[in-house]
Design a protein that fits this description.
Order of helices and strands: HEHHEHHHEHHHHH
Shape: globular
Number of helices: 11
Strand order of the largest sheet: 2-1-3
Structural class: mainly alpha
């Protein structure tokens, strides 16, 4: 990707080295506290999402469309957090906090790609629940493996298209007023504030694309859950209602967290969002949400808990069998 063209040459030497990620600032003690808080959260994110991927892959009882989409959600969450957090942790104790133009563009591209993919994937998961609850007799036919694969591929295509447009427009801007990004990673709002050119088009594109993706996804979710609610109210079985509410409740919790934070950053009118507020909200969707999603879907889902129990028992049996053969008792 071509480097930005500098119009006034005010910071040519520094700009050629890349950008400086300001982060959260504060004293050395504050930085230690940030590191001590972020590292365990990231470790839980990696552990939780890898566990979900492993359990869904290994347990035959979870080989269904719903868990196929959930496995992809865990994969996207894991990648989304890993694109941002390790570099942010390294910069906490770095004296320079410099990231190259290429590194910044790559981080922005991957982040935009994964965030948009997750937004659409959550809508696809709502559609899957609509098909399962409202058309149970045709569910296995309509949501066959090929259809599920195409739906997931479609979410990645939307994410890729969004990322190409956003990253290209952002890095065509001339960054000559400053090279200090007032954030802990390369994101569009703090980057366009550094440009010494009119950024109206960039802001309109960011607002328009982000708003369009969120609006279409939310509309799909609302319609799906509208039909689901009507179907639930017609159910005679209390246990059936409870099971549906449990599954859909987990998904709605994840949807509310993700779209709420996304709206707070990317779909606010110009001038309303502050950078400090943006940093705090960014922590939620780059670290907190990817950590909570596996907990939301595992703690409230009996199938996942049973699968975890079966895998634990299988591991115990394998371990016991190995010890037995080692001791010559078997």
């Amino acid at each position: 990707m071509a480097r930005p063209v500098h119009r006034n040459g005010s910071l040519p030497a520094v700009s050629l080295q890349g950008f400086v990620l300001v982060g959260f600032g504060g004293s050395a003690e504050t930085q230690v506290l940030l590191f001590a808080g972020f590292l365990p959260l990231y470790m839980l994110t990696v552990l939780g999402n890898l566990t979900m991927i492993m359990v869904i892959t290994l347990d035959a009882g979870l080989h269904s469309p719903m868990y196929f989409f959930l496995k992809n959600l865990s994969f996207v969450d894991l990648c989304l957090s890993s694109v941002i957090v390790p570099n942010a942790l390294a910069n906490i104790f770095s004296s320079s906090k410099v990231i190259s133009f290429e590194g910044c563009a790559t981080q922005l591209f991957l982040f935009s790609f994964l965030a948009a993919t997750e937004a659409v994937l959550l809508a696809v998961m709502a559609y899957d629940r609509f098909m399962a609850i409202c058309s149970p007799l045709r569910y296995s036919v309509n949501m066959n493996p090929a259809t599920c694969a195409r739906l997931v591929l479609g979410t990645f295509c939307v994410g890729c298209l969004n990322s190409i447009v956003q990253t290209s427009l952002t890095f065509q801007l001339p960054f000559c007023s400053s090279n200090h990004i007032n954030s802990f990673f390369c994101d569009i709002p703090p980057l366009i504030k550094l440009a010494c050119a009119d950024t109206t088009l960039n802001e309109l594109v960011m607002f328009g694309i982000s708003g369009f993706i969120i609006l279409c996804a939310v509309l799909g979710i609302v319609i799906s859950y509208g039909y689901i609610t009507v179907t639930i109210l017609r159910m005679q079985s209390g246990s059936g209602r409870h099971k549906v509410f449990s599954t859909c409740g987990s998904h709605m919790t994840a949807v509310t967290l993700f779209y709420g934070t996304g709206f707070a950053i990317y779909v606010q009118p110009r001038g309303m969002a502050s950078m400090e507020q943006g940093k705090l909200v960014s922590i939620i969707y780059t670290l907190v949400i990817p950590m909570f999603n596996p907990l939301i879907y595992s703690l409230r889902n009996k199938d996942v808990k049973n699968a975890l129990r079966r895998l634990g028992q299988r591991h115990s049996l394998v371990k016991k069998s190995g010890w037995c053969h080692h001791q010559g008792l078997c």
